[in-house]
Amino acid sequence: MARIPAAARREQFIDAAVRVIARDGAAGATTRRIAEEANASQTSLHYCFQTKENLLLAVFEHLSESLRVDSEGVNGEEAGLAQTAERLLTRTMQYAVDHLDQTRATFAITMWAQTTNPELAVRMYDMFLAGWQDVLCSAKETASNEEIASVTRMVVTLADGLSMQLLTDGDRERTMRDTASACVMLSTFVETLLRRSA
After folding, report:
1. Hey, where are the domains in the chain?
2. Alpha helices in 29-144 (DSSP H)
3. Quick one: pLDDT at residue 140?
4. What's the rounded Cα separation, in Å, for the pair 53 and 66?
């Protein structure tokens, strides 16, 4: 059997973990099940990640990075903060609709971390917020750090709610219609926020 480079093996484990977590939840995603899904040994998995917590953090980082790469087309440099926020929410929800397993795994890992290691959950969520805040900071409109942080939290709140609804009922078309409605509310929120600070 040909030897697989460590980086490729890590990717296999991360992809397998997403599938297992989406199917069995984070608590049910044992290292044995993930290794079996990756057609590898548990020893190899432990060599790459040492612990299940390290593996789940790597999965979360991978999922966050995938979403961040997908949001690169938002291009805030051509738009104000409200339009950039709308684009970010729309792109995020399109990603959720197109990648249900990844969306389900992200929620499962976040809830697992919240119950098993709350500090890790905070770190993970902060990582997620920082990526979105970077996108919103690219808007051509100037806004304070506090305003950008507030808009970021609002986008995340809307995306979390819409994603949970999608995972519950599976209605992709309704999710995108509801996303369009949420964008109207988001735009009004941003414009009001900026007017108040002017």
Report:
1. 6-197
2. 31-37, 42-49, 52-70, 81-98, 100-116, 118-137
3. 81
4. 20
Q: Do residues 37 and 55 make contact, with C-beta atoms less than 8 angstroms apart? A: no
CA atoms lying within 13 Å on the CB side of residue 37: 21
Pick from 64, 178, 69, 180: nearest CA to 123:
64
Q: Give CA–CA dist 118/124, Å, rounded.
A: 10
- The reported pTM is 0.85
CATH number 1.10.357.10 given to 6-197: yes
pLDDT tens-digit readout, 64-123: 888 776 666 666 567 789 999 999 999 999 999 999 999 999 999 989 989 988 998 898
